[in-house]
């Protein structure tokens, strides 16, 4: 498993995807965008790119510090 902190760490069109619970992120790994399902508590990790799916914005997480995820505005 390779951990990531943004899409720049992933290749082949994959996204950096992490599980979000109460603004805490865990299990950040590269996955196909279709597997990073918001309804399962997963979020795209936008990292330094700030790139998010349409209608989401890049927001900082509390833990771990330095990570950002795509959330609702």
Give a concise summary:
This protein is mainly beta and 73 residues long. The chain has no helices and 5 strands.
In words, what does this structure look like?
This protein is an all-beta fold. 0% of the residues lie in helices and 36% in strands. Strands 2-1-3 form a three-stranded antiparallel β-sheet, with no helix packed on it. Strand 1 (15-21) and strand 2 (24-31) form a beta hairpin. It is globular, with a radius of gyration of 11 Å. The N and C termini lie far apart (31 Å).
Key attributes of the depicted protein:
single chain; 73 residues; mainly beta; three-stranded antiparallel β-sheet; two-stranded antiparallel sheet; 0% helix; globular
What is the strand and helix layout of this fold?
Elements: E1 15-21, E2 24-31, E3 42-44, E4 57-60, E5 68-71
Antiparallel strand pairs: 1-2, 1-3, 4-5
Q: What summary fits the major beta sheet?
A: 3 strands, antiparallel
Structural shape: globular
Strand arrangement within the widest β-sheet reads 2-1-3
Average pLDDT level:
88
Rg, Å, rounded: 11 Å
User: Helical residue percent?
Assistant: under 10%
| Count of runs of 4 or more consecutive helical residues | 0
Low-confidence stretches: none
- Count every beta strand, where a strand is a DSSP E run of 2 or more residues: 5
């Amino acid at each position: 498993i390779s951990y990531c902190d943004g899409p720049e760490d992933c290749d082949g069109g994959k996204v950096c995807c992490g599980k979000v619970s109460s603004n805490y992120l865990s299990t950040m790994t590269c996955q196909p965008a279709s597997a990073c399902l918001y309804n399962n508590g997963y979020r795209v990790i936008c990292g330094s790119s700030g790139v998010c799916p349409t209608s989401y914005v890049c927001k900082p997480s509390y833990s771990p510090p330095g990570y950002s995820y795509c959330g609702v505005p």
